[in-house]
Amino acid sequence: MRRRTTDPAFDATQVSPWNDGIEGLAYGGDYNPEQWPLDVQLEDIELMREAGVNLLSVAIFSWATIEPREGELDWTWLDATLDRLHGAGIRVALATATASPPPWLTRKHPEILPRLADGTVLHQGGRQAYAVTHPLHRDYALTMAARVAERYQDHPALALWHVDNEIGCHVPRDYSDAAAAAFREWLAVRYTTVDALNAAWGTAFWSQRYGSFDDVLPPLSAPTFANPTQQLDFDRFSSDALLDYYRDLRDTLRAITPHVPTTTNLMASTSTKGMDYFSWAPELDVVANDHYTNAADPERHVELSFSADLTRGIAGGAPWVLMEHSTAAVNWQPRNRTKQPGELLRNSLSHVARGADAVMFFQWRASQAGAEKFHSGMVPHAGTDSQLWRDVVGLGQALRALGEVRGSRVRSRAALVVDWPAWWGAELDSHPTQELRYMDQVRAWYRELWRLGVTADVVPPTAALDAYDLVVVPTLYLVTDEGAANVAAAAERGATVVITYFSGIVDEHDHVRLGGYPGAFRDLLGVRTEEFFPLLADEQVHVSGALGGFAADLWTEKSSVAPGVEVLAVYDDGPLPGGPALTRRAVPGGGSAWYVATRLAPEGVEAVARAAATEAGVLPGLSARPGVELVRRRSDDGTRSWLFAINHTDEPAHVEAAGFELLTATTVDALKVPAGGVRVVREA
Q: Disulfide check for 351: which of 16, 313, 356, 625 has CB 3.0–4.6 Å away?
């Protein structure tokens, strides 16, 4: 595996902006004309004009259509498609067509198929039936990407390269022979010597010492717990291997079209665990993301906001592309409920409010056949005589009205620290409790900040934290010395830092930091924990103190505090009555460090979040009824700001905001947001 980074000789200044030739915000989706006869394709162009579409992703799953038999290439349909779209003024994010190998390739070379940890081969018949590390598959994919680039490098519709598709979506971890060989190569680069690997993996335990890198395997199905650092490194390797696949395709495109920007659609959310997207970001010319809400989640709009804030964090605050979401129902959840009235507009503009400069969908026209035929599209099965089509047209009008926000940014004074290696490490086996889920605390704390109206940047532990007055660090089980020092420096600079249980426990090799928990944060917090006391199933405790009384579950700790540390709440009952459950230490330099040593019920999280946000001075000046989302985007020069008010309730809401409301084109002194509606004010 190559494990390369961006070519230092590549001149990024020659890359065109991805939205060159697009006026205002981009609007569109995946377009799959190969699924439809010519008369439908011609109708599509007229409907795209009606909807206001100006950007489409094309040829994502087209390998078998372009090359139905090895070496036989048919470009006729794609030539005509790009010509028609250009004639209609629509720009194209052209895909490499590699997202699923054609059946002839996997039949001829079944060795490129991926495997599960138990050896099960994942065959063709779905999609992504390839091992990203297999050299033969890589050669075929790079050849196809080069063919597409060579043919369309000068086409006037080409705006952006869409590399593969949702890389790692279905096979985030491959255990094939090709992956095993690449894993050994990756380890040799990471550790240089097998002795260094043995030290990092702690192989003196259970007679696991390796005499050669050749002896190492991926963490396959084993009689009992696999080596935890081996598992952790395989997670790192797998994310890097998927990124390396993207880089190879990108560099193939760059060699032919150095001026055309490249991206791939990430899947940043609370459920995508496989890829460390913070490490991917420097390799993308623009960050793009796919996001789908869970119909069964009554607070799905909050998870959507988290995904958008995470995507903005991955992008380093820059505007980004919403490459996919759904107009209505999807096809892959247990119960695929359609969206509620107004939810399409609210979902789309929540992404825009939090930094998206493009709103795109899977897909333009709902398919008539195939596994995703019941996945909604911009043109539904019912056709244009439908409420969904009218909503799609209305969304296009709304995005045109919001064109002036393009390029502006969200400026936050609060940060939520999230880390993929910590996520991987926290959920390894043989831990104090197998019930702990990393995203449980991330979602809990994000939810309460959202409800308080505090917009938070979602950033890694090593991100620059100078601009933040509040830094929330949920369950950062694994942290490097650099990351721990960076968080501590924020408090020493004057920020309020909130850290929750099972944080700072191990270093990057999953070695316990000795001397008492919470390890890397022990001195910052002024707390020393001797032992963990995880709670049993359905067991709860009650905590009480300065902020009130609250239920808690899952986790308690036997701790002591240093002189000067305030104990803000204690356990009233359970295994550790009277022990500290919530503490605060005043940090020299003006900041503070709070420690939450248990899993508080939502009311407790809300109380701590409110107290910390108040102390940090980050509560918003504007307020609205619960369920109304308020977010600002600001111009780079700071001279203009736009307030997005998104009402997720069934009652109208009032916001003390004045200026020009873009969606209704009216001047307002006080803003009324209709039930389930959205308003966007260019503030006076």
A: 356
